[in-house]
C-alpha cells in the first residue's frame, strides 16, 4: 500500500470510531505498530486534529474530512455499476439522483481516473423484465424517510385482496421485483409485500415511532426475513400460496395470507 493511501485509510478508520488503538490500526492495515505511530505523528504535524498517545489510543475531533478524490479503479467500477443499476430501476427520482451523483464524482476525479470512468464497460440495461408497479416508488421512500404509515390494498398470490395499514421499515430490490418490509397492523406482525401487488397506495400523516419489537433490527434478527422464499412457477410474477418455503435469497417470501 502506498504511503498516501495508508494515511488516507487511517483517517477514514478514525472517522468511523471513537477511539482507535495503534494495535488495531496495525492489524487492519497489515503494518507494524511503529509505522502507525510514525504515520499518526505525520498526520498531526500536517494539521489533522488527532489527539491521544501511544499505549492508550487516538481520537480525531469531529468535523475533519477529505475531498472524495482518492478512488481506486475498482472503487470507481463499484460506484459506476451501482449507479447504473439504480438508473435503470423503476424509481425515476432515484435514477435522476444517481445520474447527478456520478456527474459530481466525475467532476472531482483526477484526469486519469476520469478517463477510466468514461471507458468503463459495466452496464445495467434498462430493458430487463420487471414487475410493473402502479404507483411512484419514490412515495414509499419518502414515507420510509419520514416514518409515515402507509395504506394500500394488497392482492396475494391466489388473488385474495385485503386493505393494509403498515409501518414501512425497508425497501429491497431483487431485480424483477421490489419488496417492502413492514410492521402490519392487520396481522400485528412483520410482513413483506411485493410492490407490484399493491394498489391504491396512500402515505398517511400518521407518523410512527420505532418501538422495541417492531423495528427493522427486530425484523432482520428473525430467521425468516429476505432469505425465505417459495418455489417459483413458470410465471416470474406469481408466487403460489400453498407450497412449502425453501431457502432462496433471490425469491423472498411475501405476505400471501
Can you walk me through this structure?
Strand 3 and strand 4 form a beta hairpin. By secondary structure, the protein is of the alpha+beta class. The strands form three sheets. The protein has a five-stranded antiparallel sheet, with helices on one face. A two-stranded antiparallel sheet has the order 1-2. It has a two-stranded antiparallel sheet with strand order 8-9. The protein is globular. The longest helix has 17 residues. Helix 2 crosses helix 3 and helix 4 packs antiparallel against helix 5. The N and C termini lie far apart (54 Å). 35% of the residues lie in helices and 23% in strands. About 10% of the residues have low confidence. It has eight helices and nine strands.
Task: Chart the SSEs and their pairings.
Blueprint lengths: L2 H13 L6 H8 L3 H13 L4 E4 L3 E4 L12 H15 L4 H17 L2 H9 L17 H10 L1 E8 L5 E13 L4 E7 L4 E6 L3 E10 L8 H5 L7 E3 L14 E3 L10
Antiparallel strand pairs: 1-2, 3-4, 3-7, 4-5, 5-6, 8-9
Helix pairs in contact: 2-3, 4-5
Concise description?
This protein is of the alpha+beta class.
Q: Output the strand order for the largest sheet.
A: 6-5-4-3-7
Provide the β-strand percentage band: 15-25%
Low-confidence stretches: 228-252
Structure summary, number of beta strands: 9
Counting helices, strands and paired strands, the structural category is alpha+beta
Average pLDDT, to the nearest integer?
Answer: 81
Secondary structure tally, helices: 8
The share of residues in helices is 25-40%
Biggest sheet, open or closed, and with what strands and sense? 5 strands, antiparallel
Morphology call: globular
Gap between N and C termini = 54 Å
CA radius of gyration: 24 Å
Secondary-structure element pattern, one letter each: HHHEEHHHHEEEEEHEE
